[in-house]
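Why do we bother with a discrete structure alphabet at all? Because it lets us treat a fold like text: something you can write down, compare, and reason about line by line. To make this less abstract, here is a complete entry for Acyl-CoA:diacylglycerol acyltransferase. Read it the way you would read a sentence in a foreign language you are learning: slowly, and without expecting to understand everything at once.
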Amino acid sequence: MSTHHPTRRNVMRAAAGLTAASALGTGGVLASAGAAHAVGDGHGLRIVDRGEADPRMRYYRFATSAIGWNPGVNVLLPDGYHTSGRRYPVLYLFHGGGTDQDFITFDRMGIRAWTAGKPLIVVMPDGGHAGWYSNPVGSNVGPRDWETFHIAQLLPWIDANFRTYAEYDGRAVSGFSMGGFGALKYAAKYYGHFASVSSHSGPASLRRDGGLVTHWANLSSAAVELGGATVYGAPLWDEARVSADNPVQRVESYRHKRVFLVAGTSPDPVNWFDTVNETQVLAGQREFRGVLGAAGIPHEWHEVPGGHFVRTDLFRRDLDGIVARLRKA
């Protein structure tokens, strides 16, 4: 089985002295990929850099009031997009944790080959060093409203600039690790936006084990994203926000969606990040599956050997399921 193990060395350096909970940070930035442009589009975004020479992979960097720096986005187009004249369904694909991961992560891993021949647009945005696909309670480094950027700005921009199906059956959301949490969160909070949701080694429970994942989010965001501030508030949480973001508390929001879950069962005993990450991921996904099952909500799940990494075979299987669920191009 082909696999990719994301390194977390940079997170370890950035979060030295914190617990292993800070391992789910995310998001370095890519160097400029083309001549700078300044284009307004009416969605709160302004293009400041772009690369459109590649026939499939488009690159954009935006200025936005939601984020205090210029986040990047890759848009992977299907084969034949430029000549077909057809509209296509869209997958929003979110990267996971660590300062070594960002919107080019899945390109490095082989997303072009995985999607070859599939009638699907794939949008891969920045998500911050430890943004947790959230608007944080506070920030000491300027705006870091990733939820606003992704949902209120980027999604309508994609629909306005590419031939998409701008509807429920035209969109899926998926991600790895922190990105898997983001996918589950967005699919629940924005029910009418996504017909399919997938979480590859992503946390699904914020309150179990004394709220370990919530502490994890707070510690990592304080260390490498928010300059000491946190996603959910500390020492007291914003309880309403935790509940709104917690997949196991939003179970009815997954009804009539395709739900696809992956977790590892045997973390690497040599890699302590792996052990903490995937042990909690597995427990949380089992809890989530339990509430889905009790509610009679169908879902596909896979528990497989190994720790915290993307499993290429299951990602390809997920892509096939996404294409089958969404409206046809």
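What the structure line is telling us, in plain words: The chain has one domain: 3-325. The mean pLDDT is 87.
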